[in-house]
Design a protein that fits this description.
The structure holds 2 protein chains of 2 kinds. Helix content of chain A is about 20%, strand content about 40%. Chain A is an alpha+beta fold. Chain B is an alpha+beta fold. Chain B has 2 domains: about 220 residues, PmbA/TldD superfamily (PmbA/TldD fold), CATH 3.30.2290; about 220 residues, no CATH class. In chain B, about 20% of the residues lie in helices and about 35% in strands. In chain B, helix 3 runs parallel beside helix 4. The longest helix of chain B has 16 residues. The radius of gyration of chain B is 24 Å and the shape is globular. Classes of the chains: A alpha+beta, B alpha+beta.
Chain lengths: ~450, ~450
C-alpha cells in the first residue's frame, strides 16, 4: 500500500526520544451501498477513502495526527505534529518485521466484481417476499452494504502487518400495521466475505422472515412488569453477554478501574455452564479480521471458563498496563481514530441442555426472541435491553406475543442466574458503538434460561 | 479555506455532461481533541480531514459517490462513480436539485468565534486538566474521573449545483465533557456532564466538573422502588433525548414511508394544549444552525406542534416534492460521506412558564429522571412504544428524596405528549445525533416498573 522505505522514514520522524512507540496506520477503503424503500431503489452510493494516522506513545500519553493526503511530505508533517505534542526529538531508523494474519476469511464473490444489477435484484427479491407475507405489510426497507478495507500498520518496535478485509451485510426491515398498531421485523445477516452471503441467506427468505415476525407481533399484548424467569433465544440473547460482560472486560475500562470486573480474576460469577470467549479469528464471522488495527494477529481469548473469570481483552496500551500480551482487540473505525479495546465475536459457548425442555421448565416467564439493542454502564454493570420480539411462557408453553418488554439488570448478576445453556448455538451480527467509534461485532449464544430477571413493561 | 473549497465545488459541477445535473458538497475540518487522566494528557489528536460528496442526477434518477481525493483525477473518478450509480436508481420524479437562490441567504449570527484561532494547544490542554481536577476534587467520594475531554473544530462547508447555487460558510465549535465515578461502600455510580460553545472561552470547566460530580453523587444509594403509576419529571438532559426519539417521527419522509407514529394525524390534537414544538435552523448558538441546509435550501423556523395541535412535518426537497410543497430546509448530512436526508435542525418545546424548581414543586410526588438507559431499543418512533431504563431521584413537593435506579418507565409516546403539563425555562441544547433543546419537563403519569 505504501512503500516500506516511506513507512520507515515516517516512523523515524515520529518516534521521538522519550517516546515508547510510534505507529503508522494506513487505510484504503472502498464502500458500496444500495437501499430500497417504498419498492424503489432510492440510494445508490459508493465511496473511496484513503488516509493515514500516526500515533506516538510516551508513558500514559498518546498523541495522534491523521491526514487523507498520502504523500511522503504530508505523512512526515503528520508525524512531526504527533511527536511535537509530546515534545520529543526525532530518533533513528527502524527495522520492520512482517506479522502474518492468524486467519484468512475467504471471499468467494468479490463485491467489486458483482454487477450492481445483481444487488438491485436481491433487494427487490426481499421486498417482493416481504410484501407477499400479508396485507398488513406497510413498508419494506432493504439495504446492502459492502466494504473492502486494506490496511497497513507498522510500529517503531519493528512490526509491520497488512490486512485485506471484505465485509458484506444485507438488512431487511419490515413495518406491519393493523387497526392502528404498528410493529417492525428486522433481519440483518453479515459476514467477513463476499456477496456469497446472499447464497447463504437468500434475500427472499430474509424478507419473509422479517415480515412474519412483524405480523406476529401485531397480536402482542402489553408486557407485564415484574420479576420473571427469562428464556433467551439462540443468537439474539448474545447481546446480553456483549453488553453485560464484554464491555467490562475491555482492557481500557479495567486500566481505569472503571469496570465492575476489575481485580476479580479467579472469582466465580456463574455456574459450570458459563464459558465465554471473544474470538476475532472465527473464520468468516462478521467481527473477524486477520490482524487487528495495531497489527496483532486475531485470536481467541477465554473470558470466563466454566463460570470463573479468567481473562480480558487488550490492545497494546492496556496490555502494557495490565501485563500480558495484546489479545488482538485493538480496533479503530478508520485512520481518523485512535485504536481502542473492542470486542470482535463474543460467544457464550453451547451447553448440554435442550431448547424445548428449557421452555417446558418455565411455569410463567418471558421468552426473549429478539433484542432491539441495549446499553450498559461498565462501571456498575447495570444494563437495559429492549425486546422487539418476545412472548409470554405459560405452563411450559410459548403462549402469546408481548410488546414493550425490556430487560433490566446487572452484568455480574445475570451470569449468576444462567441456569441452563442449550446446544443450539446461533450468531447475530451488529455494530457496536464506543467512544464515538463503530465496529462490526458478532454476538453468539444458544438458548439460555435466566432464573430471575426484572422485566419492564407497561402493565404495572 | 472557504474560497478554495468553493472553487473545488464548482470544478466538480463543471464536469456535468449533456443534460445531467450535479451537486457537490464539500467539507474541510480542522479538528483538535485532548483527553486527560490523572492530571496528564492521555490522548491528544489533531487533523485536517476533507472530502467531497457528489450527486449526479440523470433526469429522475440520482447516484451518489464520495471521495477524499480532491485532485483532478480524483474528482473525475467521483463524478464518474456517481454517474454510474445513477443508472441503478429507480426513476423518481420527486428527486432534484434546489433552485438557485433569489437573494443571498441571510447570515446566521454567531456561527463562529474568531478568537478561537488564537487559542493555543497549551491553553486547550490546561482547560482539560482543570476540568478533570475540578471534577475529582468536588467530593471525597469521587473515586476517579473516567474521562475529561476538550475538543474543537473549525469547519468550512461549500455547496455548488448546476442549478446555480454556489455558497460556503464557516463554523467553529468547542465542547467538553467529564465523566465522574462516585463510590460509596461497594457501589459505583457514574455522572456525565458536557458543555458546548463556539470557542473555548464559552466553556465553563468548573461548572461542568462540578455538575458531573453531582450527577454521580446524587444517585449513590439508589434503589429499586415498587412498581407504580407515578408523575415523572425529565431533567433537561433526558428531555433532550426524548425529543431525539420524537424527532425521528416528525419528518415528512418518515410519515410518507409509514415510519412515523404521527402518520394520518395532521391537524389532530396530539399533545397537551400547553405544548408547542418548534424547529428552527437559525437559532444563534444552537448546534444545528446554518444559513442553508445540506441541499442548499435556506433554513427557517417551523412550528411542528402548536398549542397541542400537529401543524407541520419537517421536509427536505424530495419529501416536500412528493407532497407538492416547499422544503422546510431540513436536509442534513453526516458529512461529505453521505447524501442528504431529512431530519430536525434545532428542535425544542416552548417553555410553558416557570423555573425548574417551580416545576419540581408543582409535581407533588414524582420520579425525577436524570438518565435514560436503552433508549435506542426501548423507544420506537414507528409504533410509539416508549419503555426505557431510568435512574434518578424521587421528588416530594420540590424536595429531592430517595435515589432510584434499575427501574423502567413506560407509556405510549402519544400518552406522554398528552401528559406533559409543564416545560420549564431551563432549556439547553443537546448536540447528540441532532440538536435538541431539553428543559425540565413534567409528565402527569407513567408506569414505573421496579420491584
Amino acid at each position: 500500500m505504501l512503500d516500506e522505505s516511506i513507512v520507515q522514514r515516517v516512523l523515524a520522524e515520529a518516534a521521538g526520544k522519550g517516546s515508547d512507540l510510534a505507529e503508522i496506520f494506513v487505510e484504503d477503503k472502498r464502500s458500496q451501498a444500495l437501499r430500497l424503500e417504498d419498492s424503489r431503489i432510492e440510494d445508490v452510493a459508493s465511496g473511496r477513502e484513503a488516509g493515514a494516522g500516526i500515533r506516538v506513545l510516551a508513558g500514559d500519553r498518546s498523541a495522534y495526527a491523521y491526514t487523507n493526503v498520502l504523500t511522503e511530505e504530508s505523512l512526515l508533517e503528520a508525524a512531526r505534529r504527533a511527536r511535537a505534542h509530546l515534545a520529543a526529538d526525532p530518533t533513528v531508523a527502524v527495522d520492520l518485521r512482517r506479522q502474518e494474519p492468524s486467519a484468512r476469511h475467504p471471499v468467494k464473490r468479490s463485491p467489486a466484481d458483482t454487477p450492481a444489477s445483481d444487488v438491485v435484484e436481491a433487494l427487490q427479491g426481499a421486498d417482493t417476499a416481504a410484501r407477499a407475507a400479508g396485507a398488513e405489510i406497510r413498508q419494506v426497507t432493504a439495504s446492502y452494504a459492502a466494504v473492502n478495507q486494506k490496511i497497513l500498520v507498522a510500529s517503531s518496535d519493528g512490526r509491520i502487518a497488512e490486512d485485506d478485509r471484505t465485509r458484506v451485510r444485507f438488512a431487511v426491515q419490515v413495518v406491519a400495521t393493523r387497526d392502528g398498531v404498528i410493529m417492525t421485523g428486522f433481519e440483518a445477516p453479515g459476514h467477513s466475505g463476499g456477496v456469497e452471503l446472499l447464497d447463504e441467506h437468500p434475500p427472499g427468505e430474509l424478507g419473509s422472515t422479517a415480515a412474519s415476525k412483524a405480523i406476529r407481533m401485531l397480536d402482542a399484548r402489553p408486557s407485564p412488569a415484574g420479576e420473571f424467569p427469562v428464556v433467551l433465544s439462540p443468537g439474539s440473547g448474545g447481546v446480553l453477554i456483549h453488553e453485560a460482560c464484554g464491555h467490562g472486560l475491555e482492557g481500557d475500562t479495567l486500566v481505569k478501574d472503571a469496570s465492575v470486573y476489575a481485580k476479580r480474576v479467579g472469582e466465580r460469577f456463574g455456574s459450570e455452564a458459563v464459558t465465554i470467549v471473544d474470538d476475532g479469528s472465527d473464520v468468516g464471522a462478521w467481527g473477524s479480521f486477520g490482524v487487528d488495527d495495531e497489527g496483532t494477529p486475531a485470536q481467541r481469548t477465554v473470558l470466563f471458563d466454566r463460570g470463573v473469570l479468567v481473562g480480558h481483552m487488550s490492545d497494546y496500551l492496556s496490555s502494557k498496563k495490565l501485563g500480558g500480551s495484546p489479545t488482538g482487540n485493538g480496533r479503530r473505525q478508520s485512520y481518523a481514530h485512535l485504536p481502542i479495546v473492542r470486542m470482535t465475536n463474543t460467544y457464550l459457548l453451547p451447553g448440554p441442555d435442550d431448547h424445548d425442555e428449557i421452555v417446558r421448565s418455565v411455569e410463567r416467564g418471558v421468552y426473549a426472541a429478539t433484542f432491539a439493542g441495549g446499553e450498559v454502564n461498565p462501571a456498575t454493570g447495570n444494563f437495559v435491553f429492549g425486546m422487539s420480539e418476545a412472548y409470554m411462557i405459560e405452563n411450559g408453553e410459548i403462549a402469546y406475543p408481548i410488546r414493550g418488554a425490556n430487560l433490566i439488570g446487572n452484568g455480574p448478576q445475570v451470569l449468576g442466574v444462567i441456569e441452563a445453556v442449550a446446544a443450539d448455538f446461533g450468531r447475530k451480527e451488529g455494530v457496536c458503538g464506543k467512544d464515538g467509534q463503530h465496529a462490526p461485532v458478532t454476538n453468539g449464544m444458544s438458548t439460555v434460561l435466566l432464573g430471575k430477571m426484572t422485566v419492564g413493561g407497561t402493565e404495572a | 479555506m472557504t474560497s478554495e473549497l468553493e472553487s473545488v465545488a464548482s470544478a466538480v459541477v463543471d464536469r456535468a455532461q449533456g443534460q445531467e445535473q450535479i451537486e457537490a458538497f464539500l467539507t474541510h475540518d480542522r479538528d483538535f481533541q485532548v483527553k486527560t487522566y490523572m492530571g496528564e494528557v492521555e490522548t491528544i489528536s489533531a487533523a485536517e480531514p476533507r472530502g467531497a460528496g457528489v450527486r449526479v442526477f440523470d433526469r429522475a434518477r440520482v447516484g451518489f459517490a464520495y471521495t477524499t481525493d480532491l485532485t483532478d483525477p480524483g474528482l473525475d473518478q467521483v463524478v464518474a462513480d456517481a454517474r454510474e450509480n445513477a443508472r441503478f436508481a429507480t426513476e423518481d420524479e420527486a428527486v432534484g436539485l434546489a433552485p438557485a437562490w433569489s437573494a443571498a441567504p441571510p447570515d446566521v449570527p454567531g456561527l463562529f468565534d474568531l478568537e478561537q484561532e488564537r487559542v493555543s494547544v497549551e491553553q486547550k490542554v490546561e482547560f482539560a486538566v482543570e476540568l478533570e481536577k475540578v471534577t475529582r476534587s468536588a467530593d471525597p467520594r469521587i473515586r476517579t474521573v473516567e474521562e475529561a475531554m476538550y475538543a474543537d473544530s473549525d469547519t468550512s462547508i461549500a455547496i455548488a449545483t448546476t442549478s446555480g447555487i454556489s455558497g460556503t460558510y464557516r463554523r467553529t465549535d468547542a465542547w467538553c465533557y467529564s465523566v465522574a465515578i462516585a463510590t460509596q461502600d461497594d457501589e459505583n455510580e457514574v455522572g456525565f456532564e458536557f458543555d458546548l460553545a463556539r470557542g473555548l472561552s464559552g466553556l465553563d470547566a468548573r461548572a461542568v466538573g462540578e455538575r458531573s460530580a453531582i450527577r454521580a453523587l446524587s444517585i449513590l444509594g439508589a434503589q429499586k422502588i415498587p412498581s407504580a403509576r407515578l408523575s415523572v419529571i425529565f431533567d433537561p438532559y433526558v428531555a433532550g433525548q426524548f425529543l431525539g426519539v420524537l424527532g425521528q417521527a416528525l419528518t415528512g419522509e418518515a410519515v410518507q414511508k409509514g415510519r412515523s407514529l404521527f402518520a394520518g394525524r395532521m391537524g389532530d390534537e396530539i399533545a397537551n394544549p400547553v405544548l408547542s414544538l418548534v424547529d428552527d435552523g437559525r437559532v444563534p448558538g444552537a448546534p444545528a444552525s446554518a444559513p442553508w441546509d445540506a441541499e442548499g435550501i435556506v433554513t427557517r423556523r417551523t412550528e411542528v406542534i402548536s398549542s397541542g395541535l400537529l401543524t407541520s412535518f419537517l421536509y427536505d426537497l424530495t419529501s416536500a416534492r412528493r407532497e407538492g410543497r416547499e422544503s422546510t430546509g431540513n436536509a442534513s448530512r453526516a458529512g461529505f460521506k453521505s447524501g442528504p436526508g431529512p431530519s430536525p435542525s434545532n428542535l425544542a418545546f416552548d417553555a410553558t412558564g416557570g423555573s425548574a424548581q417551580d416545576v419540581l414543586r408543582s409535581a407533588g410526588r414524582a420520579l425525577l429522571v436524570q438518565d435514560f438507559h436503552g433508549v435506542h431499543s426501548g423507544a420506537n418512533a414507528v409504533s410509539g412504544d416508549f419503555s426505557v431504563g431510568a435512574t434518578g431521584r424521587l421528588v416530594e413537593n420540590g424536595e429531592l428524596g430517595q435515589a432510584v435506579k434499575e427501574v423502567t418507565i413506560a407509556a405510549p409516546m402519544l400518552e406522554i405528549l398528552k401528559g406533559i403539563v409543564a416545560v420549564a425555562d431551563d432549556r439547553r441544547w443537546l448536540p447528540f445525533a441532532g440538536s435538541y433543546g431539553g428543559a425540565t419537563t413534567l409528565i402527569q403519569e407513567m408506569t414505573v416498573a421496579g420491584l
